[in-house]
Fold this protein.
Amino acid sequence: MTGVTMTELRERARKNHATLARQVLDIARTRGLRPGDHMPEQVFAGLCAVSRTPIRAAYKLLSEIGFLTYREEAGYFLATDLDQDTSRLENELDGLDAGLAETILADRAARRLDDTQSVSFLTRRYQTSRTAVLNALKILQQDGIVDRVPGQAWRFRPILDTPHAVAESLQFRLILEPQAILAPGFTLDQKKARHLRLQMTEALAAPDGRIGNLAFHRQDAAFHSLIAQGSGNRFARDTLLAHHLLREITQKDFATPEFRLRQALQEHLDILDSLERRQFDIAADQMILHLRLSRNQRPDAANRGSPPLVRLPGRAPR
């Protein structure tokens, strides 16, 4: 366990409890238990081949999401119809699997996992079931983070943990993000835009030295995800959303001067202004410039050795 923090240990334990919680509900459904039926700890501990301590943790987790109720001096009881409430049940359990997916991705970002992994290895590492691991990998696959390869193995796609990888990411975004804005049917989520505008305005009003790279990185990912969500092209939308998720989770905190953070925040606000006025051509050009400045980091170097702004198809010069 060398190098693993207490927070990571607690999070890993919660994922294990989530897997056991799924097993408990599967057993309850198989045995035909109905709402109000007693769920004796000792009985389910035996059926799951564990001690009563992890069963209590799994029961507590299930009570938190509304599937069990606890009565003083009596124990836990089933609180829902497992046959009729299938949709909510699957959504909640998928959420628990998503937690395992996040743990796997965090370990990959910290280089605790190699490029290619087997399901059996991940099952042993996280002390969980094969089903839970497969569900987590399918979530990561949907987000464009892993691919299935021959031999029951899974391979991680490149992550943003080096300056070169970040440069490639920016080049990819230069190609796709402006087009996502120009695709017919772009729609800006006004509620999310207002919330982001407030956050960015407050950050710009902060005293010098108070805008941290980590806080900016979160706002930046939220802003660019908002743009992706608004695209009328579903392929551009889904591809960019997956990429921004990868950025948010795996990109390391490459230090950026505060003056550039402030400029980038203002560029975000300017793009929002154009989008809200439905000036999509202008917003796309602003996005190109914004990404180029981010790539170069120093505004005075933005055009050194770079061609003129990309002229997108069908656009007349202005």
Notes: Residues 6-152 form a domain with the Arc Repressor Mutant, subunit A fold (CATH 1.10.10.10).
